[in-house]
């Protein structure tokens, strides 16, 4: 596996925000979001090649039971990620995968929860995430829209109206955006979503 870093911190977003977690950050991404806060992970050259077994050993050394596999885009290494998830799942770990929704995550569903980040217009990658994957998200999964303004909210709301996801949905407030505007939109349009501030940025983790 091509890994940028493995570390323990507090989960900053999604359904499990605030929980202590082991992060496995994979190198390489197939998108270039305008607001990306882990640009160093986009370049595969910034990673270190590790075997699945060595990644598993590092996770064991952290002594937590909640693992988030993130990136970059971890599903660019889907076969290795699948093997790691199978190994972790067999040992009773709770696993979450953060993905941009450009690669089919269904092979991982028996082993991990999915946090799919659906790209909005402000990302510069509008249309890159595959909305056809949304119906496969379950109650244990998460669908996240990182939103900057009303335009992003309108875009997300249209997708939600069409796909009607069964999972929890978050509007994650982009740093520097107008929280009052986003909150008002959610209230006025009864979107059925939860607004969330990116906690990891509040505690200095990128």
Low-confidence stretches: none
Which secondary-structure class do the elements indicate?
Answer: alpha/beta
Shape: globular
CATH class (first level) name: Alpha Beta
CATH structural architecture: Alpha-Beta Barrel
Main sheet overview: 9 strands, mixed
Strand line-up of the largest beta sheet? 3-1-2-4-5-6-7-8-9
Strand content: 15-25%
User: What is the H/E string?
Assistant: EEEHEHEEEHEHEH
Give structural notes.
The chain has 206 residues and is an alpha/beta fold. The protein has a single domain (2-202), classed as Aldolase class I (TIM Barrel, Alpha-Beta Barrel). The protein has five helices and nine strands; from the N terminus they run βββαβαβββαβαβα. The chain has helices spanning 52-62, 78-90, 150-163, 179-189, 199-202; strands at 2-10, 20-26, 48-49, 66-70, 94-99, 113-117, 142-147, 168-173, 194-197. A nine-stranded mixed beta sheet has the order 3-1-2-4-5-6-7-8-9, covered by helices on one side. The two termini are 21 Å apart.
């Amino acid at each position: 596996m091509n890994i940028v870093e493995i570390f323990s911190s507090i989960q900053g977003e999604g359904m499990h925000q605030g929980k202590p977690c082991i992060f496995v950050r994979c190198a390489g991404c197939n998108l270039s979001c305008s607001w990306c806060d882990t640009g160093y992970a986009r370049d595969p050259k910034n990673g270190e090649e590790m075997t699945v077994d060595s990644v598993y050993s590092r996770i064991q050394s952290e002594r937590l039971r909640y693992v988030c596999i993130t990136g970059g885009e971890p599903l660019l290494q889907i076969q290795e990620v699948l093997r790691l998830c199978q190994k972790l799942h067999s040992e009773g770990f709770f696993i979450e995968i953060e993905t941009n929704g450009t690669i089919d995550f269904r092979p991982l569903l028996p082993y991990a929860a999915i946090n799919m980040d659906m790209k909005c217009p402000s990302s510069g990658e509008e249309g890159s995430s595959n909305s056809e994957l949304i119906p496969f998200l379950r109650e244990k999964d998460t669908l996240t829209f990182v939103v900057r303004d009303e335009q992003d909210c309108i875009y997300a709301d249209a997708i939600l109206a069409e796909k009607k996801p069964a999972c929890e949905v978050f509007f994650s407030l982009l740093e520097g955006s107008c929280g009052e505007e986003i909150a008002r939109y959610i209230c006025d349009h009864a979107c059925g979503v939860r607004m969330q501030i990116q906690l990891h940025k509040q505690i200095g983790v990128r």
